[in-house]
Specification:
The chain has nine helices and five strands; from the N terminus they run ααααβαβαβαβαβα. By secondary structure, it is of the alpha/beta class. Strand 3 (about 155-160), helix 7 and strand 4 form a beta-alpha-beta unit. Helix 3 (about 45-65) packs antiparallel against helix 4, helix 4 (about 70-95) packs parallel to helix 5 (about 115-125) and helix 5 crosses helix 9 (about 210-230). Bound molecules: CO-5-methoxybenzimidazolylcobamide.
Length: about 240
């Protein structure tokens, strides 16, 4: 059977998810949108559609990009298909009647245009009840500082996917220190080439391996801050 003959709605769940990995690989935006809707109609929870179908599919794309099997134009198509799927899930993941638990400004650093992971973190944070101000990609230090001043967030999140752009996170943190505002907020960093050691070395509060860890870490650190109370003077 050729790909044209496949009726997505007739595939059982496991084959449909497999087909989504293939469609993501081939950058087939409309097929991805249709499959996301089918899984939702079958009562899949949005988080499972996101992680099992989309993120896993993008992991396969990433491996073949690394190995020189896929190239930038193809990966761009995959990224577009991924984003189309994510945009259906976004409102569902953000659907929470809970009061806002905190505010986060997030952006990808200067020189870096990768935004899928950052968008995922934004979606999951919104879903967990945070208000998120997303600065997009390629952000110079000034953009972060202006957003901090304007929005007074509890958290600053930075994303970098390139070994050449990750050091820029330190530029931002150092600028915050210079302005005397570093300790006013929690700084979380993430992105595939980072690790915990790097996060510590640049003076971030935490490195977040993935979006779920970002949510957990954000909740814990915001809680800790709120419970800290006023600092008592020595009696
Ligand atoms: Co690029 N790219 N890319 N790319 N790309 C990588 C990152 C690379 C690892 C591929 C490879 O060679 N294996 C490699 C970097 C090598 C390195 O520096 N170590 C690379 C390269 C080299 C490049 C170019 C230089 C290629 C070229 O032009 N020759 C170029 C650079 C452009 C630039 O930024 N200036 C480039 C371009 C592109 C595309 C435009 C084609 C496209 C981006 C499209 C887009 O984002 N809109 C693209 C893509 C898609 C990738 C891969 C294949 C996939 C990234 C992705 O979306 N992953 C990637 C390979 C890989 O990572 N395996 C690759 C899925 C996403 C869900 O995961 O982003 O890791 P991730 O996010 C996770 C966590 O990291 C974490 O949570 C997220 C969700 O769980 N996280 C955070 C991320 N940000 C966070 C922020 C937080 C917390 C957690 O704040 C609190």
């Amino acid at each position: 059977m050729s790909d044209d003959d496949i009726v997505l709605a007739e595939l059982p769940d496991d084959e449909l998810v497999q087909q989504m990995h293939d469609d993501l690989y081939d950058g087939l935006k409309e097929e991805i949108e249709e499959s996301v809707r089918i899984l939702l109609d079958r009562k899949w929870v949005p988080y499972d559609v996101l992680t099992k179908a989309l993120v896993e599919g993008m992991r396969i794309v990433g491996d073949d990009f690394r190995d020189g099997i896929l190239f930038v134009p193809e990966v761009l198509l995959s990224a577009n298909a991924m984003k189309a799927g994510m945009s259906i899930l976004r409102p569902l993941l953000a659907e929470t009647g809970a009061p806002k638990v905190g505010k986060m400004v997030i952006g990808t650093v200067k020189g870096d245009i990768h935004d899928i992971g950052k968008n995922l973190v934004s979606m999951m944070m919104e879903g967990a009840g945070f208000e998120v101000i997303d600065l997009g990609i390629n952000n110079p230090v000034e953009a972060y500082l202006e957003a901090i001043e304007e929005h007074e967030p509890d958290i600053l999140g930075m994303s970098a996917l390139l070994t050449t752009t990750m050091p820029y996170m330190k530029v931002v943190i150092d600028a915050m220190k210079e302005k005397g505002i570093r300790d006013d907020l929690i700084v979380l960093v993430g992105g595939a080439p980072l690790n915990e050691e790097f996060g510590k070395a640049i003076g971030a509060d935490a490195y977040c391996r993935d979006a779920a860890v970002a949510v957990e870490t954000a909740k814990q650190l915001v809680d800790r801050r709120h419970n800290r109370g006023p600092v008592m003077a020595d009696a």
